[in-house]
Amino acid sequence: MSALSRFLDSDFVYSFRRSPVAVVSAVVVLIIVLCAVFAPLVSPHDPFDLASISLLDSLKPPVFLPDGDWSFPLGSDDQGRDVFSSILYGTRISMIVAALAIGFSLVVGITVGLVAGYAGGAVDAVLMRIVDVQLTFPAILIALLVDGVVRAVLPPAAQDALQLDVIVFAIGISRWPQFARTVRGSTMIERGRDYVMAARVIGISSPRIMVSHILPNVLGPVLVIATLNLGLAVLDEATLSFLGVGLPPTQPSLGTLIRFGNNFLFSGEWWITIFPGLTLAAIVLSINLLGDWLRDALNPRLR
Amino acid sequence: MSSRIVLEANDVARHFDVSRPALQRLLAGEKKRILRAVDGVSFQIVAGETLSLVGESGCGKSTMARLAVGLYAPTQGSITFEGQAMHAALADASLRRKMNMIFQDPYASLNPRWRVRDIVAEPIKAFKLLSSRKDIEDRVGQLLTQVGLSAHDGEKFPHEFSGGQRQRISIARALSSEPEFLVCDEPTSALDVSVQAQILNLMRDLQERLGLTYLFISHNLAVVRHMSDDLGVMYLGRIVEQGPAEEIFRTPRHPYTRLLLDAIPDISAVGRQRTPVGGEVPSPISPPSGCTFHPRCALANDRCKAERPLETKVGDVAVACHAVQEGRAA
Amino acid sequence: MALLEVSQLCVEFPTRRGTLRALDNISFGIEPGEILGVVGESGAGKSLTGSAIIGLLEPPGRVASGQIIFDGKRIDNLDQEAMRAIRGRHIGAIFQDPLTTLDPLMSVGKQLIETMQTHLKLSDRDAKARAIQWLEEVGIPAASERVFAYPHQFSGGMRQRVVIALALCAEPRLVIADEPTTALDVSIQAQIITLMRRLAADHGTSIMLVTHDMGVIAETCDRVAVMYAGRIVEIGPVENVVRSPQHPYTEGLMGSIPSLEARVARLRQIDGAMPRLNAIPQGCAFNPRCTKVMDRCREERPDLLPAGTTEAACFLVQGGAR
User: Fold this and answer.
1) Cβ contacts of residue A18 below 8 Å, gap of 6+?
2) For residue C155, which residues of chain B lie inside 8 Å, CB to CB?
3) Measured between CB atoms, does B194 come within 8 Å of chain C?
4) Which sequence spans correspond to the domains of chain A?
5) Measured between alpha carbons, how far is residue C233 from residues B42, B196, C40, C45 in Å?
């Protein structure tokens, strides 16, 4: 039996197919990811191409309203940019930021967790106190703080070029403690198992045991939390951008779009902010539902 | 048979600090709590033979097993392997590969994410015994065949095997470093009896064929009797009786050895009426004074409560018991 | 009349790859005051038999067919509520790990009193006196002082004694004991075995003792049922089964136990392993491992029939051919 057919026949896939919520949210996530990846191909306009933008097209309503037409399916903003295209590009940026941030968090969190859990003693105590302290602050506050500090430190010239890196760093650094804690807990359990003893008997080094023996066995629960955190990171990014400390208007994410559209909410052009908002909600909700299902599916006790 | 000594333990002790964290302990005004898992144990293992350590939970036999492969360093005393001090033996790869270990739980001793061929090959790669992929592959196949599995089984993951088969994989891994000395920590106590028989037979076959030396740890006296040349009975971190297994089984001298032998339910004793010895094994954190067995011993007197008995030779057997020394034990 | 009569009991687990039959046509009885041992290797279905009788099968497991008759009444088709009334009052249970039975937040005395008052009409004072009496009877030292101690204040062996008191205090007529001594050291195990046997004799309680340890069975039980792959392969008086096993599996099992009496060069071993539930061979489930297998064994399934002094499910021995 090939690896693929064995996978398709596994309990994991079976439980996925039996859960309509999981299937629907996976489809939604997949569509959004595909749209974001292929945004240049899918979107009718290029919102960054100043030549194609015309003020004559500004503030057009969505297609289903009396003045709407199919060239701007979800309407246009005050600059004449297509809202639908902006959402596709915005989603792309939001997803990139969230994925990079979570990736960064994972690397930091897993490393700290493995070292703390495997070494134990004073190393563990110090690392875990750092985690405890950081966990007493809300993640978004940490992100805001880091964002602010980094901006103050960087020379103004570098700021624009590094804005994406800064926000990835800010969100990433605010979320690693959870991963560290989970990995540390599982590592402490795995460390005492006989397969680790067997490796120690033949003199395998500690870093090697951590990476090749323990890591594969502690990854499961972390990936579940990572999935759930991916949704939260999208929200973090949106919040920061909404507050104006995130990405610049030249790289509009969903949060930026919502912030700009917000100004038009009470003058009747609701579509500029509502559609990006709905997209954001759909992304976060489906990622969370998928993460919930994943947690249940990987936890044999709940099955 | 040569009587070369492979492993020698000399007054070995291993203590664990089981106190609460320092701050909490200070606040509560507690003293340090020291668990004396192994407390002054000496023995020698002769090449090609099997020494078994037997005892109930908490007697320190598993700690002794880990001391014997260098997983723990002794708090006191010394262990020598092939005439070298343990720490020197561990640092020398050509010596270190000569010792390996087989574990109790076949479900925990194999990494669930590794293929069997990688599990068995790990010691070969760690000690750089073979370098080409082809050679390693052939050797793994040969090892798997040697323990009664097939070479194709290397492609599978541990969860595809039964408990007995996993223990065979564990043995194949232990053999892959071409060891001379194996520490077997309760290798069959997680297995069903019919499978246990397979594994015990396999282990004796391998010992004969490869000239292996075993340190065999078990709580099961019948299994120990089947496997051992020499026997040490442990109680609360000390050996209370040691010597040739045949001799001890024929005439157990220490009251604790007698208790153990008497307590084992035996299929030949249908409907046996018994008067079991009361009491339980005390905590090794605060062991009784003198002879640690005295609270459960029918022969205990004031001397037993005050003075720790030293090992005394009675024929080939060494017994640590005042009553035996004084001739009070009938 | 037998106190418990299990007839043609089948327990099934529906899975997505078809239904697994975990117990296949199990029939046996337990007389009042009798200790029946159920022995087998892991996965043979011995614990499942106990859970089926006390109505605690893990879902999705279910009794597919057959009957369980306790004291003349069918109990396999009772609802949860009715079964709960029988459990504890008429059928007690002892499990391997005492901590699964004991409530860590309630003193052992309170647990005893509560159990007794649920099932028996007792005043608070009488109940407390009885609780102390029970703790004394199972051998807890200083029972009257420790009656309101919590489970964590007892050692493993003492906890198992408390569990035994708890299982017996409502004076049930049958106790299902599932590996009650497996987690204990040998010297403690001997104490617990002796205790259970004495209490069964004193109170006329029947015991179904489920264990993998043939030695425990030999010392404790009157009769023994040997299980293999969800079926009973041999059942009979313990002496006969141990001394002259009729079924090749029982014979192999006895031979594979190392003896304390003498050291042999090789233990007898049964090659292979018990089949998983989804791969039970046709005919006699033991046939691939049996050294005396015949063509018939691969096609036809032997029933449990008298063979010598026991009953065995084997074509070789039926009708006394052996």
Assistant:
1) none
2) 280
3) yes
4) 23-43+84-302
5) 48, 21, 10, 12
Integer Cα distance of C322 and C319 in angstroms:
8
Q: Give the ipTM.
A: 0.89
Q: In what helix (H) or strand (E) does residue C7 lie, and over which residues does it extend?
A: strand C4-15
Distance CA B123, CA A230 (A): 40
What pLDDT is recorded for position B190? 87
B193:C253 CB<8 A: yes
Give CA–CA dist A110/A216, Å, rounded.
Answer: 11
Which residue do the tokens 């994406």 mark? A164
Pick the CATH number of A23-43+84-302 from 2.60.120.590, 1.20.120.140, 1.10.3720.10, 1.10.10.10: 1.10.3720.10
Query: In this structure, is residue C276 part of a structural domain?
Result: yes
Single pTM value for the model: 0.87
Domain count, chain C: 1
Closest CA to B56 of B235, B217, B216: B235
The H or E element that residue B216 is part of is: strand B213-218
B289: which residues sit within 8 A by CB, 6+ positions away? Answer: B305, B306
Burial of A193 (0-12, 13-18, 19+ CB in 10 A): buried
Write the DSSP symbol of residue A82.
B
Check if the beta carbon of residue A59 is closer than 8 Å to that of residue A269.
Answer: yes
Residues of chain B with pLDDT under 70: 1-2, 271-272, 275-277, 330
Residue type, A4: L
Tokens for C313, please give them: 């499910």
Token pair belonging to B152: 């194709």
Examine residue C122 and state whether it is found in any structural domain, yes or no. Answer: no
Question: What is the pLDDT at residue B285?
Answer: 83
B159 CB near a chain C CB, below 8 Å? no
| CB-defined contacts B:C, below 8 A | 136
Tell me if A79 sits within 8 A of A53, measured CB to CB: yes
Q: What distance in Å separates residue C22's CA from the closest CA in chain B?
A: 18
pLDDT at site A65: 78
Cβ contact B268–C218 (<8 Å): yes
Give per-residue pLDDT as tens, B283-322. 888 889 999 999 989 899 999 999 999 999 988 999 999 9
The residue of B24, B86, B111, B118 whose CB has the most chain A CBs within 10 angstroms, and thus the best one to mutate to test that interface, is B111
Q: Alpha-carbon distance B258 to B178, whole Å?
A: 38
Question: H or E stretch including C133?
Answer: helix C124-137
What is the DSSP secondary structure assignment for residue C265, as one 8-state letter?
Answer: S
For helices B163-175 and B116-126, the axis angle rounded to 10 degrees is 20
Run of H or E residues at A141: helix A139-153
**C55 domain residue, yes or no:** yes
What's the burial of C121, exposed, middle or buried (CB within 10 Å: 0-12/13-18/19+)?
A: exposed
CB contact burial A149-182 (16+ within 10 A = b; e otherwise): ebbeebeeeeeeebbbebbbbbbbbbbbbbbbbb
pLDDT range class, residue A300, cuts 50, 70, 90: low
Chain B positions in Cβ-Cβ contact with residue C270 (cut-off 8 Å): 194, 197-198
> What Cα–Cα distance (Å) separates residue A151 from each residue in A170, A243, A259?
11, 15, 21
The radius of gyration of chain C from alpha carbons, rounded to an integer in Å, stands at 21
Whether residue C99 lies inside any domain: the answer is: no
CB of B188 closer than 8 Å to CB of B223 = yes
| Nearest-neighbour CA in chain B from C62: distance (Å) | 26
User: Which long-range contacts (C-beta less than 8 Å, at least 24 apart) are formed by A204-210?
Assistant: A204/B122, A204/B126, A206/A118, A206/A119, A209/A118, A210/A114, A210/A115, A210/A118
Nearest-Cα residue of chain C relative to residue B267: C215
Query: What is the spatial distance between Cα B167 and Cα B169, in angstroms, rounded to a whole number?
Result: 5
Ranges of H-type helices in C174-244: 186-203, 214-220, 238-243
